[in-house]
Write a structure and sequence with these properties.
single chain, about 110 residues, mainly beta, six-stranded antiparallel beta sheet, three-stranded antiparallel beta sheet, 9 strands, globular
Length: about 110
């Protein structure tokens, strides 16, 4: 084995019912405790709400993003990527190293 990562699995679930939704799931297994994070890149305007969700908008369209970790705390951070364009990277990382984790991102129309 070349590193601590044993398995990383990403799933996508698109639901057409109602207003529709997208759920992205990341499941990871390490052979020793490691840090883990997930992120979204957006060109839209965004703001973090008091309940921890993030509202991303572009003109009159918007989505609400909810990120859930199966146990423990998530730390939210953001940065602007300065390349040929300037999207924002929204990042949720685990506060402590883990051997196993599952993080789910739900995106719902606002």
């Amino acid at each position: 084995m070349n590193g601590p990562l044993i398995k990383l699995e990403r799933t996508f679930l698109y639901t057409r019912s109602g207003a529709g939704s997208v759920e992205i799931g990341d499941r990871v297994i390490f052979d020793r405790p490691e840090m883990f994070e997930t992120a979204l890149i957006t060109y839209g305007e965004w703001r973090r709400e008091g309940d921890g969700t993030v509202l991303i908008s572009d003109g009159e369209s918007a989505v609400r993003v909810t990120v859930v970790f199966d146990h423990g705390d998530l730390v939210f951070e953001h940065c602007v990527i300065r390349e040929s364009a300037t999207p924002t990277r929204l990042r949720w990382r685990l506060r402590k190293p883990v051997e196993r984790a599952e993080i789910r991102i739900s995106v719902l129309p606002e």
